[in-house]
């Protein structure tokens, strides 16, 4: 199937001011500012098919927002090409806007002083949403997102969680084919995050809306997005199924054995000792195809085993290990 979103060797370069130290430096900066180029997005390519839900993940400054801005037509790439629904988003901003929904977690698109229902009405007019489509969406989304009790309240009186639910509902009023969300759960409490995640999964599943969301929060990805695009310092690190992340980054499963008494040194073929004290011993598995039964069968016969726990590394752990390694190798260089 042809992708509905694609990025081909996309790079975005910003020029950032270099600040010189001291008073003299500040005066020089005023008289003759010096800038340096920053590759916010650096040669990134991907293709997304209709109906996918993709998480775009990376640490601060990785270039996530810049990519969303290019896909939504706010910015143009410095080089390379982005295509959304067969169009260049920046050259066709109006047509593009009619087909997509956009939610920026840190910037509201609702009218602050007006009741929420008025924001929806203004959105209907701006997007020229046919009345029957609007009436259906307003009813469905109000129900799905639990907005009824505060529809007539001015937006400035809503809690952050209520506002985010309303933002997402509004972004869907014109039946967009694609929903872009930049940090949709940022600042929300656990309950509100859960509501937003469940809702986005449901919209993706039931309406087939393609979803791309940027986030710092791995749980957003685990619960909404089967596919993950990971970026760091503008570059693409990983693009694939969340389930393949472990293989790609070589994260290993951990086996913890609990003995009835202090076991001394424990040798386990196919695993590497990795700490443990008292009655506990921990191992990193070599992932050489041995089953747990085979591994344990190789234990000394007199080992008095009481319990066995196997930990699959979560994506959080995998990514933390990766970034940690990068910081360490960066320091060593
Ligand atoms: N308008 C701009 N002018 C200059 N530099 C910019 C501009 N916008 C972003 N940058 C720089 O580009 C890089 C990527 O920024 P971007 O906001 O895309 O990252 P991000 O992954 O969304 O980060 P965060 O999670 O902190 O929002 C950063 O170094 C940032 O300082």
Automatic annotation (TrEMBL):
<dbReference type="InterPro" id="IPR050763">
    <property type="entry name" value="ABC_transporter_ATP-binding"/>
</dbReference>
<keyword id="KW-0547">Nucleotide-binding</keyword>
<dbReference type="GO" id="GO:0016887">
    <property type="term" value="F:ATP hydrolysis activity"/>
</dbReference>
<dbReference type="InterPro" id="IPR003593">
    <property type="entry name" value="AAA+_ATPase"/>
</dbReference>
<keyword id="KW-0067">ATP-binding</keyword>
<feature type="domain" description="ABC transporter">
    <location>
        <begin position="18"/>
        <end position="258"/>
    </location>
</feature>
<comment type="similarity">
    <text>Belongs to the ABC transporter superfamily.</text>
</comment>
<protein>
    <submittedName>
        <fullName>ATP-binding cassette domain-containing protein</fullName>
    </submittedName>
</protein>
<dbReference type="InterPro" id="IPR027417">
    <property type="entry name" value="P-loop_NTPase"/>
</dbReference>
<dbReference type="Pfam" id="PF00005">
    <property type="entry name" value="ABC_tran"/>
</dbReference>
<dbReference type="InterPro" id="IPR017871">
    <property type="entry name" value="ABC_transporter-like_CS"/>
</dbReference>
<dbReference type="InterPro" id="IPR003439">
    <property type="entry name" value="ABC_transporter-like_ATP-bd"/>
</dbReference>
<keyword id="KW-0813">Transport</keyword>
<dbReference type="GO" id="GO:0005524">
    <property type="term" value="F:ATP binding"/>
</dbReference>
């Amino acid at each position: 199937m042809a992708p509905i979103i694609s990025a081909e060797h996309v790079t975005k370069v910003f020029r950032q001011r270099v600040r010189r130290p001291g008073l003299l430096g500040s005066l020089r900066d005023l008289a003759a500012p010096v800038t340096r180029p920053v590759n916010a997005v650096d040669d990134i390519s991907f293709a997304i098919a209709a109906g996918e839900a993709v998480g775009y993940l990376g640490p601060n400054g990785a270039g996530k927002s810049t990519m969303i801005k290019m896909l939504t037509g706010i910015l143009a790439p410095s080089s390379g090409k982005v295509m959304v629904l067969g169009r260049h988003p920046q050259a066709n901003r109006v047509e593009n806007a009619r087909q997509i929904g956009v939610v920026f977690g840190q910037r509201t698109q609702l009218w602050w002083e007006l009741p929420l229902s008025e924001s929806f009405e203004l959105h209907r007019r701006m997007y020229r949403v046919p009345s029957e489509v609007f009436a259906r969406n307003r009813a469905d989304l109000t129900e799905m997102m639990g907005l009824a009790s505060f529809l007539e309240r001015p937006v400035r009186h809503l809690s952050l969680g209520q506002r985010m639910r309303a933002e997402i509902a509004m972004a869907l009023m014109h039946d967009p084919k694609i929903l872009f969300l930049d940090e949709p759960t940022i600042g929300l409490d656990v309950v509100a995050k859960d509501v937003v995640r469940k809702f986005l999964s449901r919209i993706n599943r039931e309406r087939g809306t393609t979803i791309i969301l940027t986030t710092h929060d791995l749980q957003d990805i685990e619960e909404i997005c089967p596919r993950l695009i990971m970026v760091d310092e503008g570059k693409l690190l990983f693009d694939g199924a969340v389930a393949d992340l472990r293989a790609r980054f070589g994260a290993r499963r951990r086996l913890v054995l609990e003995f009835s008494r202090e076991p001394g040194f424990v040798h386990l073929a196919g695993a590497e000792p990795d700490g443990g004290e008292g009655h506990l011993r921990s191992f990193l598995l070599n992932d050489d195809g041995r089953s747990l039964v085979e591994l344990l069968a190789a234990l000394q016969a007199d080992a008095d085993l009481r319990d066995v726990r196997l930990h699959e590394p979560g994506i959080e752990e995998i990514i933390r290990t990766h970034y940690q390694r990068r910081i360490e190798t960066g320091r060593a260089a």
